# Entry
Amino acid sequence: MISAILLAAGQSKRMNGENKLTKNFKNYPLIKHSVKNILDSSIDELIIVIGHQKEIIKKIVGDNEKIKFVFNKDFKSGIASSIKTGINNLSEKTEIFFICLGDMPLIKPNIYNKLINSKNNKEIIVPFYKGQQGNPVLFSRSMKDRIMSIKGDVGAKEIIKLNNDKLLKIEVSEECITKDLNTQDSFNS
# Structure
C-alpha cells in the first residue's frame, strides 16, 4: 500500500495573518491543488494532518474515500509533531509513504508516480532539481521509527542527512519540487 501524509496543520506565520492553505491560487484554495495532485497519483490513502483552522481546511478539501483527516493537537510545536501524527495514523498495510507539504500546489501527479516507480532497495527517495533537494520525499516503512525521533520545527531533512546510505536521488526536470508558497510575495510571483 502506498500512502501520503499531507502536512496542513501550520499557522502560516509568514503570511501576515492569512492562512496560506485557504488563500486562492489559480482560482482555488491552495490546499485543493495539493490534494488533487496527490489523489491523482498512484497513492492508496491520503492522510491530511490538520491543526490550525482545522474545520475550514476539512470543509475546503471535502470528503473522498482515500482521505483520512487526523488532528495534531500539538500543531503549535512545529512540523515534527505533524509528521509524527501522520505516521501514527498510517495504515497497517502501508509499505511506502510520502511526506508532502500543503503549500506546494504545483507538484503534479507524474512526479509522485516517478518517485513511486523508482522504488528499489533504497529506503528514502528524494527528488532533486538541478542539484537542489525538493519535495515530496518517499520513505520505506522501515524508516518509520527513525522519523519518529525528530523534534520541534524540523521536518525529515535531518533524517535524510543522517541516512545518506539509504538515499536514492531522483533528478526531475520540474522546478516545482523546490517551490513552496509560504509568503504573500510567493503568491504573486
User: Anything to note?
Assistant: The mean pLDDT is 88. The beta strands are 2-8, 24-25, 28-29, 45-50, 67-71, 96-101, 124-129, 132-133, 137-140, 167-171.
